[in-house]
Amino acid sequence: MRSDFPLVTLALHDALQSARAAGLARIEASIDLGRTIRTLEIASDHWSVGDARYPYLERCKDRTIHYWDGEGFDAAARFGDGGLIKLVPTHWGPPTFEIDGIKMLVTAQVSPMDDAARKVALVEPAGRTILDTCAGLGYFAQRCLAERAGHIVSYEKNPDVLWLRSLNPWSPPIDAPTLDLRRGDVSECIAGHAAASFDAVLHDPPRFGIAGELYSQRFYDELARVLRRGGRLFHYIGAPNRLTSGRDVPREVGVRLERAGFSIQRIGDGILARRK
User: Which strands make up the sheet holding 198-203, listed edge to edge?
Assistant: First the structure.
């Protein structure tokens, strides 16, 4: 599906308009957020890729990705249970996404894909069975696939996130043979997994104020139960402001993980833990 339609950002829109104004016949540009470069044919009332023609956008919003729905371009955004959810372009190529204005991935200093690669490498996924607790756009899973993980079970409870993922050319294909993407709340679904059924866990939850259950002692006890002894867990925490929140979330997380049976090590914006 993702290969069947172009994605237009403000940068591409401006390039198309500039080419039309200059009377150029064609330009080289990306219509898949930087994954590939294509030849785009420029005409006065449309632009085209191969045999497919597309109209110029009358108005292109900044920080928005517009996708082709078969009849016209529409913003990759919709209102869901958590508010407005949208796919947001980055200058790195791989997009991030926002829920009600809250950016869900690191993008300021590093590409979200490179950030995922660094974090996934900490659990050494090659040949292992991985639990990916909060799938999001699938960048953790994509890196696990690239590192030849044996099997990945990935949970995402928000159907609107899964919709964004279906539009994102940087997300892994849903039919990847070693990826088991499941719609569900991992805080509930984890009880259905047998003890010691995973070799490693990647836990990248929304912030504490949104998903406190994913920082709870009960959930960490479940993570310890499903992870084999010696298995690794990377827990993304971010940099919550202690002064405004009144809580030291990283310290609280560390205490709960140790109580659940992990040894812990602070690494960057998260904790690398090992099941004792």
Answer: 179-183, 151-156, 129-132, 198-203, 227-236, 270-275, 262-267
